[in-house]
Each structure stands twice: as structure tokens, then as C-alpha cells.
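As described in the Methods, two query proteins were run sequentially through the folding procedure within a single session, without resetting any intermediate state between them. The first query and its resulting C-alpha cells are shown here.
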Amino acid sequence: MLSIVLGGTCQDMQFTQFNAAPLYLNPAFTGATIEHRFATNYRNQWTAIPGHFVNYTFAYDYNLAEFNSGIGLLFAREQAGTGGLGNTEIGFLYSYHFRIDNKVFIQPGIKFNYISRGVDFSKLVFNDQLARGGPANGPSSDDIELNNVSYIDVTAGFLVYSAKYWAGVSFNHINEPNQSLTNDESPLFMKFSAHGGYKIELSEGGRKTLNTSYFNIAAHYKAQQKFDQLDLGVYYTREPFTFGVWYRGLPGIKSYEGVLNNDALAIILGYQVIDYNLKIGYSYDVTVSRLAANSAGSHEISLIYEVASKKKKRRSRRFFVPCAKF
């Protein structure tokens, strides 16, 4: 049988560790590092459900400090459904840094994506493939014409930050491209994202003592057409370890067709290899919605590696956004 909805809309990828996917979250984060930054993310969502979502990204960005700019490249892939519905995107990013005063900075950014969307036709099973003599009920392989599609997608964002706080907004799919596989109209509706946080210092250690400890409080709100979602959580860091707890949903505020907007609780563990400036994160989402008994939760892994020349390391760290890295 045909196991995907061809005329429906698809969800954007989401990451519990959204801070560990900065270029996917908001193009204004591009170049918010000393010099070079490499990041990768992997998410396996609702692992017990056939055709569950599998997402991964690879990103690189560079701080062009002499031009007050940042440039970046993002590759992302999403696989969903037993029919192998998949999105592949390649994004080119740019941001520009402004100094408001000695403590506050702002960064607008933009991303141009080339996206390819399609299905694995070998995984689709039609009625006439099951019943000898042709179709009886349901679609036939001759009835549906599927075409892989590609299009340009535009995202813009804005970020303001100081040593203690950060806040940003992004507007995804500004041009609302047509993503239909059947030559119909299926626009990818614009998504609004607002995110921010505050850092509370508890102690400050030296480079070798690893005594630095602090809290990060953070939130991420997303809205696309009639659907919206809020992630709210807190991280505690005592270098080199980080522990975080998150909640995702809007219970008591929003419901859809009588169902509460109540999605998941998440636990995040992070470790930083100080000498190599490598950050490793793992998170597990405990589903608390109606899928709780069948989903088996979601797993996510992130890696961020930052590297810079000695000359760059000696310069001011003014482009460091104080959000958690997981």
C-alpha cells in the first residue's frame, strides 16, 4: 500500500540541543566563534514507530573578523516515512557584526538553501503490485505520478547578545517555495522562531583548574501556520561537564482538536575536551504525549569543534555568544 501522504505538509527538522546546531537555528550565529567552527548533529526521533524521523546536519563557519562578518556552509538531511520521503539541503550563510557599545553586539544573518525533496520509489508498494489482475481498491502505480523536486529556500535572522544574555529571531521559508511531488500546490509555509537565554555565573576558574561553573536558562519558541511549540530548560555546567533538563510543549495554553500541546521531557549530558575545544552532547527525549506508549523516545548526539591560530586566540572574544553549547 502507499504509505506516505503525498499532498500533506512536512515538518521542519528540530533538535533538542538547538544551541548545538547554531547555523540551523539562526543564520545570525554564523561566525560567532574565534576562527573556525565545525558542528554535526544527529537525531533519531520516535525510534519505535515505523518510518520514524532521522535527521543529521554538518556545518562549518568562519569568523571574518577583519570584515566584521561571518560565512558558513550547512548540509542537512532528513529521512521520514516507510516510503523514504527525504529532504536534502545545502545552505550558504552570511552574517555581519555590529557593536552597539562595549558590552552589546547585534548580528543580522541570511541563509540561501538549495533543497532537493523526493521519495525512494523502490520502497513504495501499490495495490496492483499485490493483487494479480490489476487494482481493486486504492491507488495504482499508474494512477500517481511522483516527481522529485528542488527549490531555493531563504531564511533571515537577527541576534543580540552581551556577556550575560542572548536573544534572537529567525524567519524560515520566507519565499514559501512549492514542495509538491505531484505537480500541485503545496507551499512550505514560513516558520517563525524566537530563542534566547541568560547566563548566571557561579564561579570562575583558571584555564587549568576547570573550576568554572554556571547556569544557562534558555527558551525556544517556534510557530508555523496554526502549529507552535515552546522548548524551555536549564543547563548546569561545571567544566568540563554539563547537565540539562528540558520541557517541550504548551499545555494549558494551546491544544489541537482537543489534544494538549504536551510533547516531551528531555535530559541533556555534555562534556567538553578543554585542550582540544571539542564539545560532545547527548540527549534523550522522554515522550509525554499520546505517543508515549509507542514511540520509545528520541535520541540526539552533537559534536562541536572550534579551532583557531595562536594569533586569533589572543584577540578579543567579543564574538562569543553566552548560550550553552548543547
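Immediately afterward, the second query was submitted; its sequence and C-alpha cells are:
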Amino acid sequence: MNRMFAALVVIVAALIGGCMVQDTKPLPKLVAVQATAQIPQNELLDVGIREFATGIPADKAADTEALAKLRIYPDLRKAETRYLPTLLRQTLESTAQWGAVRVIPQNAEFVDLLVTGEIVQSTGRELVLRITARDSAGRTWIDNKRYESLADLGSYKSTAALQARDPFQNVYVEIANDLLAERQKLTAADRQELQRLSRLKFASDIAPEAMTGFAAPDKKGILHITRLPATNDPFAQRIDSIRERDDAVIDTVNGYYSSFAEKIQESYGGWRQTSYTEIEKEDRARSSARMRTGLGAAAVLASILLPDQCAGDAYTCRNVQSAARTAGAVGGIAAVLSGIQKFSDARTHAESLKELSESFQAEVAPQVVEVEGRTLRLTGTAEEQYKEWRQLLRQIYLEETGSAESATAKVP
């Protein structure tokens, strides 16, 4: 019997220990490495950041209840695929280490450095991203690396603090510093070649028949330039003109992402702050529920298993002992019921978080932009529309040259 009581004590201690909720301490603020000297223009690499992948599990994509349990709300997550790359862009731009840094559609390419990502987890309390970065020569700078951080609680102190620094700014700083570390491994000649490769790959996409044999991979699969068009070649000049138009479209798209981020910053920041509070309440409610239920169950068992301490004819002792057992059982059952109520409270907090996310969705409606007389609807089909624009660029080239087959590049 004594062993049984000892076991109960161990169980209760385990329940109490397992239900502790740790307070999150303020995080140290990381800072992106800034340029200390002006970088030559022909070494500044342009960066394209594609919309992040949603990270929604394919087997649960149609099950909203299952996604809600994972704290994933599809429309909100779609908004994050556009918003989070914008925060990374702002971080990279702030360092003065790069050329043009843009957020681009999924099918946009021909950029010196292309960054892609996936949202693994995103709540007001935690952010987890997976990032990959490759340059135009085919080098992998970052290979599906996991970046994660808890929220910096200092950002939740006030609206001004939230606007001044994102709660997960450390994540973007780590990515920026990793990219810089990889760039510093390249020589000046390597960086200049990356710029030329991006230009040649763009030209090859517009006029593949005319652009052959200008680059070849080495034994490691890294592209290197084998020859270049003459700088005064009319063909090269036409391609450069067309690329300027394409850059203008990309700039417009990037401007859309910036406008979108500005529009939702306040409401999204408020959602994150509330999300953090709701998650903390839910966790504390669950912690309290486990402890109350465990202690209640232990009290019930203890009252049932209370050893008989009275002599056979000690009626008063037996009455007292019976009352103690009854009180213990009643108190234990009350504790169990209280624990069940706490679980109900936790579900209420989770439902509140879901409702907040659903109300936020109305504030991230699709936008449309006008580009040279063409309307691009920047939603899930933005990639198809950009593809259509790319086809239009090729038509412009054909109209200006007569035919792609007649265009030849003069090689020095």
C-alpha cells in the first residue's frame, strides 16, 4: 500500500513538472552586416526573392479543421508568402551590400542571385523558414537551410515598437548575413561574370536560336562564359533594350509587393500580437487542465486506497475515516471537472485565434496593376500572367528584328 502511495506521489510530481510553462525572455537583437565601402557597380549582384511556398501539408490541404489544429489558415498563409519575402528584401536593401533587390513571381528568373523559401511554421510566437539560394552560374549558396526564432517580445510592447522592428527580424538578419558570407567567397571576377551570365541567359530565353555557345558548365556543373557578343552589336543592344522593359515590369511587381506589405503591416502585426497572446493563454489553460486533472485523479485514488487505520470496534474512528475518504473523492472529482473546464477554455482560445485569422483574410484581397497597357492580377495566377508578359517580350523582339532566325550575334 505504501508503494502505491509512493507511486501516486511520483505521478503527481511528474504532472506538475510537465505542466510548467516557461516564460519567453527577450531575445538579443541581431544586426545585418553593413557595407563599409562603396561596392563597384559591376560587382553589385541583383537579388530576386520569389514568393515563399505556403508549406501547407498536401494531405491536409482540404481539411480546414486539421489545418487549424496546426495553426495554419490557408488564406492568411498565402498572404504571408508575399509579406515575409518583402521583410527579407528590406533587410537586404538596408545593408547596401547588393544591387537591385526585388520580390518576384514564382516563374521569374534571370537574376544574379535567386532566393526561394518555404514557410514551415508561422504564428505570433514562432517563425520557421526553409531557404535556398542559387546564383546564375548554378552555385548553391544556401541549401534548404532551416531558420527559426521565437518572437522578440519587445516588438509587442506597443504599436510603435511593432512598426519599428518585426518580431522575427532576427530570422531575416541571419539569412542576410549568410548570403553575404557566401558572396564574400567569390572574387570580383566571379561577381562580374554572374552579371554577364544573367544577361546572356535572358537573351537566350528571348532568342534561343541566336544565343548558342556563349556559356558552358565546368566539371562541377558551374556555368562559365565562353564568349560574348560585341558591345556595339545591334542584336545585343536590342536585347538590352528589351531587358530594360522586363526590369520595369519586375519593378512594378516588386512595387506591388511593397504596397501590399505596407497595407497589411498594421493589421498583420496586430494579428501576430493577438496570436501570441492567444497561444500563451491556450498553453497555460492546457497546463492548468493537466495539473488539475492529475491532482484530482490522484485525490480520488488516494481516498479509495486509504488504508484502514481503525480497530474493528472503533465506530467513531471509522466514521471519521469514511468522511475523509468521501471528502477526498468529492474534492478529487471537482478537480477533475475543473481540469475538463480548463481544456474547454483552451479550445475557446484556439477558436478565437481561428476567427481572428479568418477576419484578417478580408484585408488581403488581390490587387491588380497596369503594365504597359496590360492588366496583371497578382494572385495565385500571377506566375501565368508574368509568363504571358515574357511571351509578349519575345513578340516584341520578333517584331523589331523581323525573325529570330535572322538575328546573329557578332563575336569578337
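The longest strand covers residues 140-150. We note this only descriptively and draw no conclusion about the first query from it.
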